[in-house]
Automatic annotation (TrEMBL):
<feature type="region of interest" description="Disordered">
    <location>
        <begin position="272"/>
        <end position="292"/>
    </location>
</feature>
<keyword id="KW-0732">Signal</keyword>
<feature type="signal peptide">
    <location>
        <begin position="1"/>
        <end position="23"/>
    </location>
</feature>
<dbReference type="Pfam" id="PF18962">
    <property type="entry name" value="Por_Secre_tail"/>
</dbReference>
<dbReference type="InterPro" id="IPR026444">
    <property type="entry name" value="Secre_tail"/>
</dbReference>
<feature type="compositionally biased region" description="Low complexity">
    <location>
        <begin position="280"/>
        <end position="292"/>
    </location>
</feature>
<feature type="domain" description="Secretion system C-terminal sorting">
    <location>
        <begin position="453"/>
        <end position="520"/>
    </location>
</feature>
<protein>
    <submittedName>
        <fullName>Por secretion system C-terminal sorting domain-containing protein</fullName>
    </submittedName>
</protein>
Length: 532
């Protein structure tokens, strides 16, 4: 994540200083990384984060072939084949700094990103009355959607952050080209926005102002506002302000958003975030042993919370209720990179430490291989398949060996779907909890899509599809010169389609079937009787 407010207020107010820092990534299921320096505008690379902290690249995040930078990753529990993120535009300019970031959906198998539309910021509050002071030329009210905070809840909501504030300025004539120089910030307010992923962008985000009546939470906001003002009045000679919320994570057990401020060791919980967000700030009795920004946070299926040192990349496990450091920390394999990570439901810890999982087409079957480094209280492995990556079906169940040192497994799907489909591995614990591997895309190009009977045929025959037809299914009969002589659009749900060929001359024909993003052409012989 971007350190909170650094990307927003400072980029908004101090374009001349060019601060636009992406934050360090945690060890979790998936991450987007952008190599240093952030100012270079290197595109994000989607990576699988392995349980040992290493990274396996999936691909550069692209929108229609154009590489992009993403941040604020979140997930949708009802669609685990994708993640969501907000786009970061580089470089920041006067013309784009207040442009609402667009929300993207990223395919975890291909790193292809789909632009879902801009996320409108919260409305300007109508109760700001702070006037100009002596020497100030004027003010303007700013409102922003922050592109560095995002997380999904237990359903299909995506939580983002917004801010409104008043900026006071003076006309600076000390340079050849006079400009408005910010000198003071007031009335900084934070908001929690809820995006309903299934209906966005038709349904805009719902914004609710964060209740900061808790004195400690109000002090966090006021302290950061003071840092920004000191930096502004020093003309950028003081250190860049680094206070404020850096990231948050949704705790499914309590229904709260949680944040840890590493610079001053504050633990913030936001209750009822979807309707009436209320902030409560405490100081952990056992703080994280770092004074650096906490750039990213994630959680696991057991409710553990992990906070990541944004500068060094070290991952610290903290208590989800108190923010206390538990004594567990994890090394970083990210090196110098910036970006964000997301925790899919049930990501960590696993009953199985998965070393690898692959699904590859093999003739007319799909070979599924996986290997484990350790197994503890594992019950079974579920081979799951999906046409589009959303509706998963278990096609095989393999009993777990439960060997502490792990083992290798291999199986075949003898009846794969035609065209493109997805496979994933479900790892079921003895308590019934299931965690999932990343999805693997498989394209069956050599599999026979259809069969016809009888063949040869005398007047009529039947087309047998391997999967039920839908609105996109097309069945065409072509003669030997390629002319279409029959064109059928079967009703949805059909697998056996009758073809009436009476009246056609005998000879060789070709049946062309388009189904599930694949096309197959098979020969059909019509006998002499077919012309009678």
């Amino acid at each position: 994540m971007f350190p909170a407010m650094r990307k927003t207020l400072l980029a908004f107010l101090l374009l001349a200083y060019g601060h636009d820092l992406l934050a360090q990534l945690p060890t979790n299921s998936f991450a987007v990384t952008s190599p240093c320096p952030a100012s270079a505008g290197n595109p994000s690379v989607l990576q699988q984060v392995n349980t040992d902290g290493s990274l396996t690249p999936i691909g550069t995040v692209t929108d229609g072939g154009t590489p992009i930078i993403l941040n604020a990753l979140g997930s949708d529990d009802n669609n685990r084949s994708v993640v969501y993120g907000l786009r970061v535009l580089q470089p920041i300019t006067v013309s784009n700094f207040n442009t609402p970031p667009s929300l993207y959906r990223v395919d975890l198998a291909t790193a292809q990103a789909t632009n879902l539309g801009p996320v409108a910021p919260p409305a300007s509050p109508g109760d700001v009355t702070t006037p100009t002071q002596s020497g100030e030329s004027g003010f303007y009210d700013a409102r922003l959607t922050l592109n560095f905070i995002g997380d999904g809840d237990a359903s299909s909501n995506y939580y983002v952050a917004g801010a409104t504030f008043r900026v006071f300025y003076v006309f600076d004539f000390s340079v050849p080209f006079p400009f408005l120089r910010p000198v003071r910030v007031s009335d900084l307010r934070l908001y929690v926005g809820v995006i309903a992923l299934p209906t966005f962008p038709a349904t805009p985000p719902v914004w609710n102002r964060l209740d900061t009546s808790d004195p400690a939470t109000a002090a966090v906001i006021a302290g950061y506002q003071a840092e920004v003002q000191a930096f502004l009045t020093s003309n950028g000679t003081l250190p860049v302000p680094e206070g404020g919320i850096q990231d948050w994570v949704y705790d499914v057990r309590s229904g709260t958003l949680i944040s840890y401020l590493g610079q001053n060791d504050r633990f913030i919980s936001i209750s009822t975030p979807a309707t009436n967000p209320v902030g409560t700030t405490t100081q952990p009795a056992t703080p994280i042993p770092t004074q650096q920004n906490i750039g990213s946070m994630f959680t696991d299926r057991d409710g553990n919370i992990y906070a990541v040192d944004a500068d060094g990349g070290t991952i610290y496990k903290i208590d989800r209720l108190t923010g206390n450091y538990t004594g567990s920390s994890y090394g970083s394999a990210f090196g110098c990179s910036r970006g964000d990570a997301v925790s899919l439901p049930g990501a960590l810890p696993l009953p199985v430490t998965l070393k690898s999982f692959t699904a590859k087409a093999s003739n007319e079957t799909v070979r599924i291989n996986w290997a484990t480094a350790s197994e503890d209280h594992a019950d079974a492995f579920l081979i799951q398949r999906s046409r589009g990556g959303t509706d998963w079906q278990t096609v095989q169940t393999v009993k777990a060996g439960n060997r502490p040192a792990g083992q290798s497994y291999s199986t075949l799907d003898g009846a794969p779907l035609a065209g493109r489909s997805y496979y994933r591995l479900g790892m079921r614990d003895t308590d019934g909890t299931i965690s999932y591997s990343p999805a693997q895309a498989v394209t069956m190009t050599g599999k026979t899509l259809v069969r016809t009977f009888p063949n040869p045929a005398n007047g009529r025959f039947t087309v047998q599809l391997p999967a039920a037809s839908d609105a996109a299914t097309r069945v065409e009969l072509l003669n030997a010169t390629g002319q279409r002589v029959r064109n059928l659009r079967p009703e949805a749900g059909m697998m056996a389609i009758p073809v009436e060929a009476s009246g056609l001359p005998a000879g060789l024909y070709y049946l062309r079937v388009q189904q599930d993003d694949a096309t197959q052409t098979v020969p059909v012989m019509l006998s002499q009787d077919g012309n009678q």
